[in-house]
Amino acid sequence: MAATFELHKYTGASAATENGPITGFDFSSADNATNSPANRAANPVYADSYSMETVLRLKVTAAPDNAIRNVYFWSDSPTQDSGANAAPITIYYGVTASPTTPTASQSAIATTDVAAATSGAKVLWDAGDLTALNETTDALVLQLHASAAAAPGDIATWTLEWSYDEL
Amino acid sequence: MNYRAADPTEAQQAAQQPTEELELAPPPIAYDIEIRSGGRVYFVSWGDTPGWIRSLASELDAATEITLAPKLGHADRLPKIRQPLEPGQKWILYSRVTGTITDGEIVAYKRIYALGYEAAGRRVIQTVDHATGIKSLEAPEA
Description:
A: 167 residues, three-stranded antiparallel beta sheet, 11 strands, B: globular
């Protein structure tokens, strides 16, 4: 029985409501843990605006023998559309131990362009050792910004990756 | 409708990721550990032996060889790998899990096993991919 380290999304006041484990998430204007085309259609992120912050943590649901450490994330995907719909879509990130209530205004936490977080420059998600059941990493806060010139439609494929070492 | 979303069209999404194939957890550890130290061999059922690094700390520090042996049911596809250790060589042993979200959905978990040593600024790591059983002498990225 290996450790189980699941992805959860946190919503509500102080991002204290745990949802999941999740199999995906939406960049939408709603503070929910729904992941569906219908959710994105019902809660769109309009041009010249921000998505609701997405607050993610990894949670230990089966303890490791010794520890989980070296938790990193990165993305090698471009976040801009291509072709005729070339207006920039930017995804920002931030890591914090104390997330605030998710906002659809410009985030005070997710302020770094995720384009800088690549497989060659992975970002530390949590610096500590996780050893016990129900321990969680720090919160990874993501927010999408659509520029004023953004056209309607879905953005290009975007991939987020994370890794950890199990001892 | 004027909106921006993280995912491709519904049809694309359905084609790429059937719900029943979503992976919520990485594959379980498929190796056990044999530690040769002081003329004895200490066996660790990896994933089922809480605190073995602490309980076998002195044996690990004095180890002359560490072996990763496939658990039952995995010996036909995963290689057994050995790492001899000279005095002064610090052992390296861990399993690295990588998760991937594409278009808003978790699409894959990957696990590798890493065994090696570090001494005098030199770092040697053997890795084995859980899914393919392919062994490599390349160190995984930090």
